[in-house]
Amino acid sequence: MFSLMQSYPKIFQLTYLTPLKSNFLHFLNLQQAPRIHFYYKTPAPFRYFAASKMEKKQWQKHFFPLLLTIFFFSTFPYKTSLALQDDYIRQPPGKVVVTPHHRSQSDPQQVHISLVGKDYMRITWITEDKGVPSKVDYGKISGKYNAMAEGEHTSYHYFFYSSGKIHHVTIGPLEPGTTYYYRCGGHGPEFSFKTPPPTFPIEFVVVGDLGQTEWTASTLAHVDSKDYDVFLLPGDLSYADAQQPLWDSFGRLVEPYASRRPWMVTEGNHEIEIFPIIYPHGFQAYNARWLMPYEESGSTSNLYYSFDVAGSHIIMLGSYTDFDENSDQYKWLEADLAKVDREKTPWVIMLLHAPWYNTNSAHKGEGESMRKAMEDLLYEARVDVVFAGHVHAYERFTRIYNKKADPCGPIYITIGDGGNREGLALTFENPPSELSLYREPSFGHGRLRVIDETRAHWSWHRNNDSDAYVADEVWLESLTTSESCWTNTEDRSDDSKVNKDEL
Asked: Taking every annotated instance into account, which residue ranges of this chain make up the domain Purple acid phosphatase C-terminal (predicted)?
């Protein structure tokens, strides 16, 4: 629901964020928004479906439910809890890029892969033909497939929209650092991917708030200009905002990249897509399309999970599901961190959507309740780095615990600058906080290259230049190397200092 209201900012004003409880109906009071002075290009639903005859038919198909949605929100007195600041200016965003489907109904589209357990990969794709089998043929030689795996399929409805057949097939065991060729459902083109290395070095690309705009295309082109092993996305994928054909468009846009390297994602506020009474729980499209290895990590929800890859333990948290001490997510995180073996996975990296530390006026304080609930768990487990999105800018902090610099706390990095359709969050606090070491409102992407058990190199690449430009970089040291952090688990002193050149 919130994402729908963000799609129509001239109709609604969004106010204050509070945590949402699962299985509860939240009542909202929607008021017409006053004049807001920032540059914002309102998404035009009519524009999305005007590129071809096929897309015109799609628009006609979804015109009525869209009008019904707008009418519902305009008529009934509900009150929202999602903040949208009035006092900051966003740059004009790039135009939305709609990616059509040119293959046959039996051919795969929106192909993407994800890690699932040790030495396995999940292949996900969609077909319009419901009779295509959920199977993948694969092998190490192009055109020669000596292995085949069968999987499952699902579909969903959202008002008058019906998804295609969504296939999920897990293949393996696979050899690390190896290129595999595969074909989905016995139809269409051949794809290939390379499995991550068995150990260090490994390189992660980190991009938040991706969307599907001209800036998105620029970011993905810059990402693709240099090889990497795993793509990490801390929420806000398609910005479909309940306009379900945009989920399909997003899947086709990212397919050339997501079919070649594993994409590991977690949800953002634009994935919620709640509609009162009819769709009260949200995340229907996200859960159906972007199935992650939550069951393999002991989680009961696709909204939070963890996985190991090449000496790194990656935790994906859910900012938009329960997280207090009595919640399933809290108990799962506590158990997951307790099982981490820092000899096998010396690096522990966490991703979530709403940042816990933020000096931008955009979404100020929206991650505070989650920080208060969970920060002690991260600190006691000596998590190395926490990535977040949501704020459409880049910001890197020092090591922090409880709002103070602490050499045993995580490094916090906000990277919600992938290419969203809403523009950039330009207003940072002045004077800047001593905890914030670098901040810049530009589109871009980050790369974390973990060299070995102790060292990693982080770089942020601004992409509003003709070539990706390294605007910020720093060498990181794993907390496994700090004896004092493991021998002293008591609260740190207030005057803890951190070397700002090597964290």
From this structure: 409-472
